[in-house]
Amino acid sequence: MASRKIEDLHPVTQEKVQEFLHLAKQKGIEVLIYCTYRSPEEQEVLYMQGRLEKFGITLEELNEKRLKLGLWKLSEKEAKRKVTNARAWQSFHQYGFAFDCVPLSAGKPDWNNKEAYQTLGQIAKQVGLEWAGEWKRFKEMPHFQDTDTYTKIVNRGK
Q1: Which residue in 75, 133, 125 sits closest to 103, CA to CA?
Q2: CA distance between the termini of the chain
Q3: Left if phi > 0, otherwise alpha if psi is -120 to 50, otherwise beta: which for 23?
Q4: Cβ–Cβ contacts within 10 Å for residue 114, how many?
């Protein structure tokens, strides 16, 4: 099961996330971070979702893999929906530079609160984070990543 701990993120990203949460609270948005670090095994299982035929596996086999990782069983409908385009080691989650969150309404996740996500996207820009809700190819409203810090680290050795 993926981590929810901000401490599992890169130290620079942790600072940006703390500022993000502070500014969200100032705007009256309570946020639940439900994923920070994600193992490559879990990432690959998430990538398989919506691609059972491509991987030559059944829903039962996918659910077996999910249960071993502490994830819930998917229904047939859920298993058809792609949730990521990133395979293992292609996601910033594996490197500590990404988190997924959801705004809360009356203490409960409000997945369809587009207005809150738009505001969170603006806050993300302010603190130096990229919001996947603005991606052209695969919009992912709950996903935020620290592309700048990741890029600086990767380019250090070049």
Answers
A1: 133
A2: 34
A3: alpha
A4: 12
Q: What is the pLDDT of residues 33-82, one digit of tens each?
A: 999 999 999 999 999 999 999 999 999 999 999 999 999 999 999 999 99
What does the H/E/C string look like for 1-65? CCCCCHHHCCHHHHHHHHHHHHHHHHCCCEEEEEECCCCHHHHHHHHHCCCHHHHCCCHHHHHHH
3-state SS string for 99-155:
EEEEEEECCEECCCCHHHHHHHHHHHHHHCCEEHHHCCCCCCCCEEECHHHHHHHHH
Specify the pTM.
0.93
